[in-house]
Specification:
The complex is a heterodimer of chains A (764) and B (155).
Chain A (H helix, E strand, L loop, with lengths): L1 H11 L2 H10 L6 E9 L5 E9 L2 E8 L2 E8 L5 E7 L2 E7 L4 E8 L3 H20 L9 E2 L6 E2 L26 H4 L3 H18 L1 H18 L6 H50 L2 H5 L3 H43 L1 H8 L1 H37 L3 H6 L3 H53 L5 H43 L21 E10 L2 E11 L4 E5 L6 H8 L7 E6 L2 E2 L5 H5 L2 E4 L8 E2 H5 L8 H10 L3 H6 L7 E2 L8 H14 L4 E5 L7 H15 L3 E5 L11 E6 L2 E6 L1 H7 L2 H29 L1
Parallel strand pairs in A: 12-19, 12-20, 15-18, 18-19
Antiparallel strand pairs in A: 1-2, 2-3, 3-4, 5-6, 6-7, 8-9, 10-11, 10-13, 13-14, 16-17, 20-21
Chain B lengths: L5 E4 L5 E4 L5 E9 L8 E6 L5 E7 L5 H14 L5 E7 L6 E7 L2 E7 L5 E3 L5 E4 L5 E4 L7 H8 L3
The chains are: A alpha+beta (764), B mainly beta (155).
Chain lengths: 764, 155
Amino acid sequence: MNASLSANANFMLPFEWKASASAQLSPQENVLAWLEVDLDVQLQFAKGLLIVTEQRILSANTCASGFEWQSWTLQSGWVMDHFDYAGVGTLSLRSSSEQIAVWRFTLNHNVLAMRLQEAFAARLEVITHGRALQSSLTARCPQCKLPLEVEGDECPVCNREQHAPLSTWGLFRLWRFAHPYRWQLLAGFLLTLASTAATLVPPYLTMPLMDDVLIPFQNGQDIDHDLVALYLGGLFAAAALAWILGWAKTYILALVSERIGADLRTTAYEHLMRLSLEYFGGRRTGDLMNRIGAETDRINVFLSVHLLDFATDILMILMTAVILLSIDIRLAAATLLPLPFIIWLIHVVRDKLRTGFEKIDRVWSELTNVLSDTIPGIRVVKAFAQERREANRFRDANKHNMAVNDRINFVWSLFSPTVTLMTEIGLLVVWGFGIWLVSHHQITVGVLTAFLAYIGRFYTRLDSMSRIVSQTQKAAAGAKRIFEILDHVSSVPEATHPQKLPTPLEGRIDIQDVGFRYGNRAVIRGLNLAIQPGEMIGLVGQSGSGKSTLVNLICRFYDISEGAIKVDGIDIRNIAMSDFRSHIGLVLQEPYLFFGTIADNIAYGKPNASRQDIVAAARAAHAHEFILRLPQGYDSLVGERGQGLSGGERQRVSIARALLINPRILILDEATASVDTETEQEIQKALDNLVQGRTTIAIAHRLSTLHKADRLVVLEQGELVEEGDHDTLMAKQGAYWRLYEAQAKNAEADRVKLGEVSRKEDIV
Amino acid sequence: MSDAFSLSFNALGQLAVRLADGSLHEEAVVVRAFPIAEPDLSISILSAEGKELIWIDDLAAVSDVDRQVIERALQMREFMPEILRLDGVNSFSTPSTWRVQTNRGPTEFVLKGEEDIKRLSINTLIVADAHGVQFLIRDLPALDRHTRKLLDRFL
């Protein structure tokens, strides 16, 4: 049985290792876990393999002569550590006194590495104590420890990161947005067909006009006035028809494309709003604004103007070709001769232009980024007198923009005249060949005139088509960037089968084994915390210790990398986002007010709140009185471009906002940090109202503001180091005690300085 | 040359620092303050708790023995492969897999989005892969034509 198991495990080994590894393993040896590492100890990229069997650890390096194997027999007391830094994971094997071996790998192997570490730990448990640890019954994802339904299932949280490459046919993907308007589009297409046909009638009529009227007249016959009237009437009717049809098709298609563009914009924005904070953290405002604003508009213009032109052109070319061929095949062949060449030219230039336009888009975003960087920071710019530097930065970005444009303009400007040249040469060929045919009595002068009239149109169309190339590429580049937003799956995905939160919610929060990695930095590590309903927790720690991150994780602004956060026993990843957040009240250090009235801002989380509710919330937040002092009371406009409020006032509005939704869970992130002591007392009173009966997590820099907390939790470098109430922690003389002492000393020093100042004033 | 401190590796493979006052700090880490701008100047040695123990203005001023220890510690800790050549990419739209030659050997990685390419200065770029490993492009114009042409599609 052992042998068959071993064979099975070997089978899972990567192909290039299999033969070599089998030679190393004895037939009775079971492979428990393996890991292919991609770095060596000196952190050079090099493949290696690490195997844990029941008795041994084997490790292989690649070297010049193939594989180099090492092995160690497992001994009790050995430990395998796993940690990672800057994108590199490390497994180190050590006994109680010394290091035995180290393996390094990039984080794409992290899951396997953790599995191997677990397998090792479990096996060592057997070796040391002679029996296995009580293994947990539920299957868990090896990476995030999310309970899985079936062992070995793909974890829904970890596997969503995999992504398929984008299709380059970006513009065709717009069909998703065009689909609702397909009937209007069909009507537009039919109208286009008809109007194009109508514009092709006049040149056809020049043929009989020439052959039946003008040439017989030149040969001495009288002009047939009825015939002339008939033909001229025909010409006019065709022109009028083309006018009406052209108007109708343009109008319908413009209408449709405007709607498609609007849908695209709203969809992109709606999608953007659903993306996680992580997405916004990694992107710049200017770039996003540009994508949603300018680029949807470009697609829109393309659809309404250029695509229509393009369709007309294609139709016109096809129809003209058919007509020409039906009149005279030889002359038609001569006329169509340059066509393949022009198509080839268009094809060649298209690729060049598309990459160029993508580049222009990126450079353009860079330009807007400079703006969105400096305009909100204008106070800093001015305070440090760096206007000139910022102007230079903008000028540089602009110069870059210009340089990129210049490069593409070269190709682009060469392209258009080349097409014109082709058309001129084409005309020349038709003239020459036509005259030759006429002189040999193969065709009439009328036929030649009609041909010349047709190909005049034909080549203008080709020319305008070539212009469209650039527009198409611009729109394709725009579409690509829009779809980049639309294709982005939120890293905080909605649960597929959300569980309902119980009503009323108790507000118990369980944080189990939570780890969180931001980029390649582990910010929170192995954190366990159980918060009882209605309990107030004070989160304490130096800045950078992970307090705000923890709060962000509890709010599910980010998803944890490992472990689970549960509210009333339900994993927050399995709760519908809006359901979950409606139970959370958040008061931030820098309250953000939207442009609108104060009443709107208070009612932000509950837009249908009654006026009484709003006033009640404002009263409880101690905001009522200052609001009444404003000239327009609750109807005063605040936010950007609105009435200026002080920091403390804004904070109280935001507290009222949190009070109004009556959340079970309350999060105060440095709510009083940015205001003066007097205002702080005012806000503290407001907060005391807010906290009552709710599960509260408060972060505060000033420890004195946490006197009401039932329990204090001290974080240090992402780990929970202490918890307990103030007195216990002080008695312990640990991390909390150090923080407290440091602050007390500062306060003391301040008092002394103030005292000196006032004494001096007394003397004066 | 003798330093006001002495460095060594203990049996557990950790960096141990003995300061002039005789105190011993194990599990210390060495970091460069300006890993890109001035890698060999401004080096700091931190204790396991993250407190600075030693500040070194210039690595050249340290005794040979200690410098070797520092260099070995840095080699084991810092990881920012420098891209020397871009062999190929599987797609010009992201996510895209890049095959590269680096100063730490050949490898391939996935670029999640164009925004993961960050410009430190006109000619210096940092490319972060899907797993957070950061690759450095120190001097863009110094790279070969093929690489610059491919990179150009992403910049």
